[in-house]
Every structure is written in structure tokens, then in C-alpha cells.
Amino acid sequence: NVKLDFNGMVDYSQVIPKFNIKSKIEDLKFTQLHLLDLPSDTLSSLSTELELNFEGNTIDNIQGTIIAENTNYTYQGNNYFLKNFNFSNTAEPNGLKTLSLKSDIMDADISGNFMFSDLYPSSLKFMKVYLPSFSTRIADDLDTIREQNFVFMIKLKNTTPVTTLFIPELKVSANTVIKGSYNTTQNVLDLGVTSAKTSYQDYNLKDFFVSCKTRDSKIMINIGSQELNFSDSVGLDNVTLKTIIRNDSIRYDLAWENENDNIKNSGNIAGFLNFTQRPNIEIRLDESKLVIND
After folding, report:
1. Which of 14-23, 140-149, 206-215, 263-272 is predicted with the least confidence, judged by mean pLDDT?
2. Would you state the pLDDT for residue 101?
3. Predicted TM-score (pTM) of this structure
4. Confidence class of residue 288 from pLDDT cuts 50, 70 and 90?
5. If we measure between CA atoms, which residue out of 132, 97, 128 comes closest to residue 112?
6. How many whole angstroms separate alpha carbon 92 and alpha carbon 95?
7. Who's near 283: CB < 8 A, 6+ residues apart?
8. What sign results for the dihedral spanned by CA atoms 51, 53, 56, 59?
9. What are 126-144's pLDDT values in tens digits?
10. How far is it, in rounded angstroms, from Cα 222 to Cα 137?
11. Is 123 in contact with 70 (CB distance < 8 Å)?
12. C-beta neighbour count of 150 within 10 angstroms
């Protein structure tokens, strides 16, 4: 059920284990070896060439490198191939970390103070500042969470092997970029996303973007796309959704304007949501404008 060439050592004599291994794995069958329960395909297998040189036992304390080459995963008769995967993580005595991932699928770089295990709870603490009425549903011990202060840059390349395997309806173009910074001490978030083409099922976005910034105790989020197509014949041009979140309220402005002179559709819908009286929510629709040409 597996052909394995192994050379190296694993040291568990200390609290933090160390790995220094070179290995070639051929046709590792997960189900037969009881590593994974995959009833949909009991013959799925993995082949790869591994080089491990790191210490650690969690995603947050790993230091060193993990390299995988010529990785092939066979599932339900389909092959998913990854030529190169290179992960490295280093930490300075002051706690600053630098994480780097290079692969066929994406390149990613993160640097600063960060703990993956604290990202979700720290995001809840972050939102309490802007939507305090939701704080009753958020644990009180979030104040003990360690500081998150880092910058990040992710560039997607060929995501087809991953999306085909896990979300086959999703397609994301190469050179999609996700970048920004996050500082929990100052409650600052800067996030930018740009993608030339993104689609999910029958929905297609051209020149899609997301911009999120925190300034003066408010979150400003802009989402838009040059084209939003619901089918081959139905769609909207120049779609933007602008929102401002502060003091338990969300102000929104949705707009679109088709560029086709023969089918002139445009719209602007603006309004306000207020959560201060939860569970009751105040919903207000400001003056709006719709132009529909059928």
C-alpha cells in the first residue's frame, strides 16, 4: 500500500520535536493504511518527494523548511499534480516571524507578529469595536489574546488543482492578489483584493476588487466589478457596493451602470442598518434610483 524511501532522523527527546528527513513516497493509499477514511474513493493515493528540515509540532511554532516536489494525488481517477511546494518559517528572538510559501498554486509572504491559532478570536475582538451590540455573543476573555501585527501578500497562480478538487464550481484567474496589513493593538486593517476574472457556477466577475480600510473608528469596505454576469445574456456593468461600519451601524450604497447604449440599465440603492436595539434591527432605505430598459 506504499513504497517508501526514508533517510534522516526524528528527534522527540525535547519538548519541541525536530525533523531532518529526505523521503520518496510512492502510491501511498490512505484508506488501506487507515490514515484517512475516504469512502468515495478507497483507491486514492499520493506520491511525492519530501525534504523536511524543521522543529515544531504546531503551525504556530514550526521553524525551518518543508519542501515537496513532483507531488501527485490521485482521486476518483483524476490526477492532481503539484510540481513545487516550498514552505519556510523563521522567528527572531523578539517574536517577529517571516513565513514564505512558494508553489505552483500560489506565492505567499507574511511577516510580523502573528499566531494562526489566534486569528479567528482576534477578528472577533476586532469587530467588537465597530459592532459592540454583538459583544454579548463574544467571549470576554478575548482581551488575553496576543497581539497580531503583520503584513501579508498572497499571489494566486494556478489554483485549478485545488478548486477542482474542493470547489469545482469556483474558478479564479492567475495573478489574483490579496494583500494588506493587520494590527489588533491599533484596530487597523488594510485589505486589498484584485482579480481579473472570478466565477462561481453561472456568476462571472470581471476586474473584481475589494478594498477594506479602518480609519477614525470606522470600517470602510468597497466591493466592485467592471462586469457582473448572471448568465450569457444578463448582467450588470460597473457594480460597486460601498459600506461604512461604525457604532453599531452600517451605511451602504449599491450602484451599477451598464455601458451598453442599447440596453441602458443603471441603479443606485442606498440605506442604513442599525443594530443598537438588537435583536430588533432598524432598516432604512434612502432615496434610490433605478433605470431599467427591457
Report:
1. 140-149
2. 97
3. 0.88
4. confident
5. 97
6. 5
7. 271, 272, 273
8. negative
9. 888 888 877 665 666 666 7
10. 27
11. no
12. 21
Q: Is the pLDDT of residue 294 over 80?
A: no
Cell numbers 478538487 correspond to what residue? 165
Q: What is the DSSP string of 135-162?
A: GGGS-GGGGGSPP-EEEEEEEE---HHH
Residue 148: Cβ within 10 Å count: 21
Phi, psi (rounded to 5 degrees) for 98: -130, 115
The strand ranges marked E within 119-234 are 149-156, 170-172, 177-183, 188-200, 203-215, 218-229
- What distance in Å separates the CA atoms of residue 241 and residue 227, rounded to the nearest whole number? 13
Residue 74's pLDDT is 92
Q: What does the alpha-carbon distance between residue 63 and residue 218 come to, in Å, rounded to a whole number? A: 37
Other Cβ atoms closer than 10 A to 65: 15
In whole angstroms, what is the distance from residue 182 CA to residue 203 CA?
A: 30
Residue 175 CB: number of other CB atoms within 10 A? 11
Unique residue bearing C-alpha cell 433605470: 291
Give the type of residue at 135: S
Indicate if the alpha-carbon torsion angle 227, 107, 167, 71 is positive or negative. Answer: positive
Predicted confidence band at 62 (pLDDT cuts at 50, 70, 90)? very high
- The residue type found at 232 is D
CA torsion, ordered 55, 10, 58, 31, to nearest 10 deg: 150
Long-range CB pairs of 122-127 (<8 Å, 24+ gap) are 122/148, 122/184, 125/184, 126/184, 126/187, 126/189
Return the CA Rg of the chain. Answer: 24
Other C-beta atoms lying within 10 Å of the C-beta of residue 99: 20
The residue among 25 and 129 whose pLDDT is bigger is 25
**Phi-psi domain of 49 (left: phi exceeds 0; alpha: psi -120 through 50; beta: other):** beta
